[in-house]
């Protein structure tokens, strides 16, 4: 029997089982299997049944919302890697440069196979396993470098005499002869909590350069280990500041953070709070009940547990228009409880929760919007298609803390950050580490490059001088909603 017929039979069994479990009152599952079978038997050309099924799923999910999806293949791998904060590969952050076109190393991951082999920021990947990268997309390159741990891969690397070009202008660098680097893929763990700049050993310096007593944590996403990473960073910051942290300040930078695991965001909030509601979620049935007037209803209420790291430490949360989902949960929670001021520009406004459900045969994931969340003040976060700027949604900066940088400023900050974030090069023959080549852009102090960060620091400093920081850190601003813990 042809394999495609076996696939159709299997698909019909699976669909029939699902239909039975759902009691398939309308017979949609049965008709769907019948359509697939008819196409396989009668269509003029042979049809790849898996592609046909995937296309059908895309059509189904297109009728829902932009955050629900049927996730397979590379998209599934990327999603799982983001949430798990690990992947099988060589550990390289790459970019695609335009003139001349090349796949360039932004930074190796500290401790990864690429880092141990001496691959550095600014290196260009010319070929992978003998296949030139000139006609490969960045996506193709990433796919070729990732793979099962323990498998080999060979790279052809071109290194310039400048370890890192300037962010302001192209370096006058001489390209060295290409060299072949043989690597073995490993499980590479990624970071989601970053500091101000890299130290020589690849670890983070949390203190803001040029700002005495000020520290920063930049949370790029919310994955499995984010709260653990942040907890270690806060302990290091507390040790650095000493017993009286009230004289210091902490900037929590959530700019560009598109979200991640809701549970991770709750754990992050719990590090800063001793008590109170962090976030409430409600599903379809409860949402309908709320629309009918039962506003106290909630599916799940997440509360802070006793104990906090760095109590009394003044905090500012920095956000922008790309701060979304789980990142908005953190910003809204700390703002509503008066634990932090919020600086920057209005957030994205994504207040829905997607549940990740794998298919029983492991062939894909269903990412489905199953609930929405509301902030402790019970104000809505999610922005709907007909909402305008006057409608309550997202997270807005505190009064007087609004600042939106220009496009040129954003480009400058991005290039400057790329240099400061690069992992120092390890030269395997000498066994030593070198920092990326110093340049004027690398040495420039944060406040002279990043106006939003400077605004956050100045706001805390001005609030301390006035003996009143924003809304008063540590003082609850809103009554807790009258809901019980389910």
Task: Describe the fold and architecture.
The strands form 6 sheets. Strands 3, 4, 5, 6, 7 and 8 form a 6-stranded antiparallel beta sheet that branches. Strands 1, 15, 16, 19 and 20 form a 5-stranded antiparallel beta sheet that branches. The chain has a 5-stranded mixed beta sheet with strand order 10-13-14-17-18, with helices on both faces. Strand 3 (92-97) and strand 4 form a beta hairpin. It has 3 domains: 3-63, no CATH class; 87-188, PDZ domain (Pdz3 Domain, Roll); 193-406 and 452-465, 2-enoyl-CoA Hydratase, Chain A, domain 1 (Alpha-Beta Complex), CATH 3.90.226.10. The N and C termini lie far apart (53 Å). The model is unreliable at 3-21, 162-173, 290-297, 429-441 and 467-486 (pLDDT under 50). It has helices at 3-21, 28-42, 49-62, 73-84, 113-116, 138-145, 226-241, 262-272, 284-291, 326-336, 407-421, 440-443, 446-449, 451-465, and strands at 69-71, 86-89, 92-97, 102-108, 124-128, 131-132, 152-158, 179-184, 186-189, 193-194, 197-198, 204-205, 214-219, 249-253, 277-282, 300-303, 315-319, 341-344, 352-358, 365-374, 425-427, 432-434. The chain contains 14 helices and 22 strands. Helix 7 runs parallel beside helix 8. Helices cover 32% and strands 21% of the residues. The chain is of the alpha+beta class and 486 residues long.
Layout of SSEs?
Layout: H1 3-21, H2 28-42, H3 49-62, E1 69-71, H4 73-84, E2 86-89, E3 92-97, E4 102-108, H5 113-116, E5 124-128, E6 131-132, H6 138-145, E7 152-158, E8 179-184, E9 186-189, E10 193-194, E11 197-198, E12 204-205, E13 214-219, H7 226-241, E14 249-253, H8 262-272, E15 277-282, H9 284-291, E16 300-303, E17 315-319, H10 326-336, E18 341-344, E19 352-358, E20 365-374, H11 407-421, E21 425-427, E22 432-434, H12 440-443, H13 446-449, H14 451-465
Parallel strand pairs: 13-14, 14-17, 17-18
Antiparallel strand pairs: 1-20, 2-9, 3-4, 4-5, 5-6, 5-7, 7-8, 10-13, 11-12, 15-16, 15-20, 19-20, 21-22
Helix pairs in contact: 1-2, 7-8, 8-10
